Amino acid sequence: MLKVFSHYFPATTLYQIIFDAFVLFAGVVVAIVLQPDVGIESWRMILPSALLFAIAMIVLNTITGFYRPVAGRQLKDVLARVLVGVIVSIPVAYGVFRVLPWGEFASEAAEVSVILLLGLILVMRGFANRGRLGAFMSRRVLVLGTGSEAESVERVLRDPASRGLKFVGFLPTGDDDDRAVAPDLILSNRGAVVDVVDQLGVNEVIVAVRERRGGVLPLRELLDCKMRGVKVYDLSTFYERVRGQVRIDALKASWLIFGDGFRQGFFRSLVKRCFDLAASLVLLILAVPVMLLTALLILLEDGGPVFYRQLRVGQNGRQFKVIKFRSMGTDAEKDGKPRWAQSNDNRVTRVGRLIRKLRIDELPQLFNVFLGEMSLVGPRPERPFFVDQLTAEIPFYAVRHCVKPGVTGWAQVRYQYGASVDDAVQKLQYDLYYVKNHTLLLDIVVLAETVRVVLTGEGAQ
Q1: Same domain, yes or no, for 121 and 149?
Q2: Would you tell me which of 100, 363, 404, 443 could form a disulfide with 375, CB atoms 3.0–4.6 Å apart?
């Protein structure tokens, strides 16, 4: 994992992106240079244009999810993913060809060659990211501990999303009574931690021990490992790096107070507000035709009203009314009782089901963003009734209210639609990661992920 502006990016994904960008850049240069009548003076035009083309295609492929692992999916799912990428990327590629200033000497054959190269990269990535990476690109990980925390870490390491990390085994500590892991995975009688690290070529050690007092941890040996260049992580840092979440079960108030992150400075707020103003204005202008069509469809199916306003809790606990397209019947809560919205809610109309799937029902919230009540990216705002319930039941739930709520958020693109207290706990862990690490870069990442979710229909309500 590489940490860039407080956010963790998988190093293997960045290597893939750099490799694909270089291949596309070189492919364009070669395809055009091999054309007749291309002189030396044309290089000034060819090189920047080729670089721009490569960057545009890589950004598009990243947004459509080609650099996300999809291990365990059937062949038909991978083929469908490749097909969607081709359908989206090829027309854009031809459009970029027409815009860039090389049309006067780039033949149709050169264009077709580059398009075929792009298609080959899409197919290669579609299948390459179907499984885990080879051992030559993996970092070997040793887990210190054998309890339930260690077992949870192993599950994460074996998840295809944790590519680039190879689990090698558990090393028991001196006071390991709670053994929740498979006995055959425990590395007994191997000697000290440093010896095991040397024997197995370990790159990282995860300390999966909740109780650290009373000499449970071999601190001197862990320090020796770190001095040798081996990374040593605790549970909180491990989940933050690999899962993009701050785990509630590994969280203490002292970590929130004394740890990095959770900075709410004036300059950061100013940059975020300027970005929200500019982006919401542009998006509102672009969304006008879609919003008019949606309003018409709602009126034709179920009559008015087109919009509905609902009280939500915003930054610092301030309440405001969120604006959305109405996707349920007018009598959805006729008894006055607040209810969680379900994934297959029978209160949702036919038009409502479609606009929820495409996230069109969220578009009017751009007005809330423009007015400063919300941000484009942030934790989703909840109703006061549920906020009171969740604050009483979930530790640190109120921390998510120290930033403005968002139209989309880190939790929305990382976790499927949820409608229970347990789901709220899972989503809070992603919200805490966002609150801790939010920057303009992370906002852009979330917006790109949102486009992918809309295009693929993941997590649709």
Answers
A1: no
A2: 404
Which of 146, 138, 117, 123 is CA-nearest to residue 50? Answer: 117
Give the helix, strand, coil percentages of the chain, each rounded to 5. Answer: 55, 10, 35
Q: Which helix (H) or strand (E) holds 319?
A: strand 319-325
Phi, psi of 142 (to 5 degrees): -105, 135
Show which of 243, 258, 276 is a domain's final residue: 243
The H helix count followed by the E strand count for the chain is 16, 10
* Overall residue count recorded for the chain in this entry: 461
Quote the pTM value: 0.81
Domain count, the chain: 3
Burial of 278 (0-12, 13-18, 19+ CB in 10 A): exposed
CA torsion through residues 35, 41, 47, 52, sign: negative
Q: What tens digit of pLDDT does each residue of 167-208 get?
A: 999 998 865 557 888 888 998 777 788 999 999 999 999 998
pLDDT tens digits along 91-115:
877 777 777 765 555 667 777 777 7
d(CA 131, CA 168): 18
Structure tokens at 68: 């996300």
Q: What is the DSSP string of 202-221?
A: --EEEE--S--TTTTS-HHH
Q: In this structure, what CATH number is given to the domain that contains residue 166? A: 3.40.50.720
Q: In angstroms, rounded to a whole number, what is the distance separating the alpha carbons of residues 447 and 282?
A: 14
User: What angle, 0 to 180 degrees and rounded to 10, lies between the N-to-C axes of helices 266-302 and 440-456?
Assistant: 20
Name the nearest CA neighbour of 438 among 393, 376, 396, 361: 376
For residue 280, which amino acid is it? S
Distances from the Cα of 460 to the Cα of 228, 343, 415, 422, angstroms: 47, 8, 11, 19
Tokens 């893939």 appear where?
16
Q: Which residues of 406-426 are buried (b: 16+ CB within 10 A; e: fewer)?
A: bbbbbbbbbbeebeeeeebbb
Angle between helical axes of 440-456 and 421-437 (0-180°, round to 10): 140
- Cis-peptide into 405, omega within 30 deg: no
- My answer on whether 430 and 364 are in the same domain is yes
**Is 314 in a helix, a strand, or coil?**
coil
Beta strands in 18-154 (DSSP E): 139-144
What is the 8-class DSSP label of residue 306? S
